[in-house]
Request: fold
Amino acid sequence: MENCVNIIGAGLAGSEAALQLAKRGIKVKLYEMRPHKTTGAHVSGNCAEFVCSNSLGSADITNASGLLKAEMEILGGELIKIAKKHSVPAGNALAISREDFAKAVTEKINQNSYIEVIREEITEIPEGNVIIASGPLTSDNFAKSIQEFTKTEHLHFFDAIAPIVELDSINFDKAFWGSRYNKGEAAYINCPMNKEEYQRFYDILINAPRIEQHDFDKDTKFFESCLPVEVLASRGVDTLRFGPMKPVGLIDERTGEENYAVVQLRQDNSAKTMFNLVGFQTNLKWGAQKELVHSIPGLENANIIRYGVMHRNTFINASQILNPTFETRERKGLFFAGQITGTEGYTESIAGGLLAGINMARRIEGKDLFTFPKETMLGALSNYITDKAHLAHISKRDGSLRYLPPQPINSNWAIVAPIDLPKKDRKNKKLKTELLSKRAVEVMENFSEVDNINVN
Reply:
């Protein structure tokens, strides 16, 4: 096949795929419509811009997301290295300075002689070797082209962004530094609430006006881990106290007390001047957001640098369209990568670009494509979203076999090939995850050595 690849989208997946191909000596045309055409959620034209949170999740290898990061390092992932270089304190998680990270990725891509960045919107799927990594914010015009190719209804869900406030405007007479259970450094700012303060906050939240979305309807779907805070609150007065505002493990050393509820803020930039409200994705009107944020103890006079917004995310039904290699079943040399495949999360997006980039290179080189082992997190994820067996169910009405619509999924232990344990240890979750992660690393290391996957 021709030694050139068109990649649509310079987000996390597209950037990773481009760098994987380039270091294998394959030329890339990387198309990105920003900044000439915006998405409504991005704020720059840089490659690999983080939109919602600035966290890649846990760095602990016994955590599903942490294991996926470790596997990417074994495979020679490029963006994971840049993320670590531009990390900011976040306890046991890997969080990055958004601006520094995106600038570093953009610079690395611009300086690579094998990659040509083309700033224009693509509205039709090109011929030849193509990786579609246009992401959940795919433009309407290109989405129509994808829909025509897949011959399926285009699916979507809604996602939201949390507000960011200025550090110097936080009142540390009330707020305090700390990490849950004192794990790692004291990386989070914590705003504690008593019962009365929480009730006032809750009343403001559930009565706050929301921004109208023209494409909202009764069938609107949210990804559970990114639910707007107002949607969570609508499930009950204590839902937030058992979710993003849970006080467990957060003791204010000044008082020695565990509070009724706690709002946490996480560093958002390397200069340590901007902090985002953890778990506070929202679609409230901006005036309502300001009232809500200012009702939080310690944030009474907070300067809100960026307000939360909601956006529509697009993804395909990968189980009908893709092989576990992320190549389409109907057309050789056409791959999808990133959140448009139905995975959710920054780490998962990068991993999808890594997988697609490696397999595209193998397609061009005339080699068999890799299907990664189900014992690994990357293999489990890619096999799961491309296998429609998990969507099958027996209709209660007539007993026929039907398929449920897919839902976005992130890395988790339930999709990994199980491990045999003695009966006495089967309920030991800690032991189970330790053994699963150890096995995954060993399997991935052995797998990567088979064909020298890790190209430095």
